[in-house]
Amino acid sequence: MKGKRLLYSELAYFIGIFVLALGTALMEKADFGISMVVAPAYLIHLKVSEYIPFFSFGMSEYVFQAALLIFLSLVMGKFKKSYLLSFATAFLYGTILDLAISLVALFPYAGLVWQIIFYVAGMVICAIGVALLLHTYFPPEAYEFVVKELSSKFHASVGKTKTIYDCCSCLFAIILSLCFYKSFVGVKWGTIVCAMVNGWLIGKISGFLENHFILKDGLSLRNKLQA
Concatenated DSSP letters for the chain? Predict the structure, then answer.
């Protein structure tokens, strides 16, 4: 514990959401393909915004995650308070994501070199955001929450359930892309690279956090939120 810095769980939560949104915005700007986890919501945003211009990526994120939570409640046969809290996280993330996309759009840089910089920076920043969120007691976004709940219900490992979910999400995104555009949009080679290294990155960053920071609750909310 000597030499470790104090980091409050609540602060880690808000920082995690902000940097996750920023990383997603950078990967979207790079246009090399975004994470397969958010790819379905991104494709829905692209298609729906052709008819409803104000339907942003952020809006698509929390609408799609709401649908995931409804699906989860049907599979589980019940609805928990934590599902609403997970949606609250998704709503906050989606709102910040739209802001982040607007800010990133102000960068006047273009070209292959800058695309690579945006992509790599976005992927690393996303991993930092996920690692921070995993070290808090707040319910995560629906993506992680669905994996956690389904693995518990079917007595499967989280890793195996996560792999199955990621594959299903990727397949769904590919189907949407081909149905909407008859080509690969959003799901590109960058999506595959992200899938290959994302877990490793999150693990390394999580280890760094645990070695250099002491995570402590600043508020007495853990038991109430996890009840």
Answer: -TTPEEEEHHHHHHHHHHHHHHHHHHHHHHTS---TTTHHHHHHHHHHTTTSTT--HHHHHHHHHHHHHHHHHHHHTS--HHHHHHHHHHHHHHHHHHHHHHHHTT----SHHHHHHHHHHHHHHHHHHHHHHHTSSS---HHHHHHHHHHHHTT--HHHHHHHHHHHHHHHHHHHHHHHHSS--S-SHHHHHHHHHHHHHHHHHHHHHHHHEEEE-SSTTHHHHT-
Question: What's the rounded Cα separation, in Å, for the pair 198 and 50?
Answer: 31
48 lies in which domain range? 5-225
73, pLDDT greater than 70? yes
The string of DSSP codes covering 94-127 is HHHHHHHHHHHTT----SHHHHHHHHHHHHHHHH
Could you tell me the pTM of the whole model? 0.87
- CB neighbours of 86 closer than 8 A, spacing ≥ 6? 65, 69, 139, 140, 141, 142, 145
pLDDT tier for residue 116 given thresholds of 50, 70 and 90:
very high
Choose the weakest-confidence range: 16-25, 43-52, 76-85, 178-187.
Answer: 76-85
Say how many domains are in the chain: 1
- Pick the range with the lowest mean pLDDT from 16-20, 127-131, 150-154, 209-213: 150-154
Q: Are 27 and 123 in contact (CB under 8 A)?
A: yes
